[in-house]
Amino acid sequence: MSEDVLSGLLRRIRLRGALFFNVECVGAWVTEAPPAALIASAVMPGSEHLMEYHVVLGGTCWAGITGEPPFQMNAGDVVLFPHGDPHVMSSAPGLRAAPDLPFLIANLKRHVGLPFMVRQQDDQLVQPVTARGETSPDLRSATLLCGFLGCDRGPFNPLLASLPRVIHASAGQLSVDSWAGQLARLAEAESRASQPGGEAVLERMSEMMFVDLVRLYLCSMPKSQTGWLAALRDRHIARVLSLMHSRPAEAWTLEKLSGAAGLSRSALQERFVELIGQPPMQYLRCWRMQLASNLLVDSNAKMATIAHEVGYESEEAFSRSFKRTVGQPPAMWRRERAVRQVR
């Protein structure tokens, strides 16, 4: 049940992968990524939110959010930065190199399609080393697969808020048949021989890798953890979420939902707020607005039709609810998204 809720949300927030490149690093090296929002328009113009990930294909390196303690990564490890934080990848801890943003954007725009190779000695995507502090004498080479994932940030994406700033999965934590491992092997092969359809395959596999990492994080969360993902582990709240996600147009009331969950209304309200941070009926309204936003962007359906599909008896009631939740009337929101897509 919980996995169905997660799958449904991932479809509605339009998760998709794009643009891969392999980086071969030798000796003393460091590359510093800027905030993902600064390069989002060059990488995935149609996405509101950009995430970056790196898979260590071979060797060892260090990774971490800029300004925070780094951690070591070995062959088979994966790191994901769900919130698009600026981060550093380097041969040793303590290395820094300011990102050349104009050069980076120009390269990202130029290299489209299947994974392309970047080599430390002849491409500025891997910056010259500027060490601040001591450098480890044992500098090893590393080969990285770097990629991006995009998704909608609004009107309602409860998953993002429940993810940490970094998800680091070691090779030992990932199964032999994990999507991360398969993606690494396939991307390496595709970078050598560009086959028809390879780009689409890699994009889908990166999306499945993201699900793998989210599942791994979900399983490792302490029992005291709160948030949307934590709510999927609570059988009562997971049941309510499943009902609202699968039948959003139904005339749900707190009484109906509490009956389905096997809880009193007050107990449901309290547990829902504790885990997710908002009451059940407010969550339902936000989820309906996310569904409505998909219909506004992906279809030519009339407002009255969209209103009915997300549980409103009239176009007027839907418009009021949409404006209260999103901050704009649905017609205006649709026009602005259409302009953005053309750009």
Low-confidence stretches: 114-139
The DSSP helix count reads 14
Instruction: Give the total of beta strands.
Output: 11
Q: What level of helicity do the residues show?
A: 40-55%
Distance between the termini: 39 Å
**Multimeric organization:** single chain
Strand content: 15-25%
Shape: globular
* CATH fold node name of the largest domain: Jelly Rolls
| Name of the CATH architecture of the largest domain | Sandwich
What is the mean predicted local confidence, pLDDT? Answer: 84
Gyration radius over CA: 22 Å
Q: Summarize the main sheet.
A: 9 strands, mixed
Describe this structure in words.
The chain is of the alpha+beta class and 343 residues long. The protein folds into two domains: 14-220, Sandwich (Jelly Rolls); 234-342, Homeodomain-like (Arc Repressor Mutant, subunit A). The protein has helices at residues 2-12, 40-43, 101-110, 158-162, 179-192, 198-220, 228-231, 235-246, 254-261, 265-276, 280-298, 303-309, 315-326, 330-342, and strands at residues 16-25, 30-33, 49-65, 71-74, 78-81, 87-90, 95-96, 116-119, 130-131, 142-151, 167-169. The strands form two sheets. Strands 1, 2, 3, 4, 5, 6, 8, 10 and 11 form a nine-stranded mixed beta sheet that branches. It has a two-stranded antiparallel ribbon with strand order 7-9. Helix 9 (254-261) crosses helix 10 and helix 12 (303-309) packs across helix 13. It starts with a helix and ends with a helix.
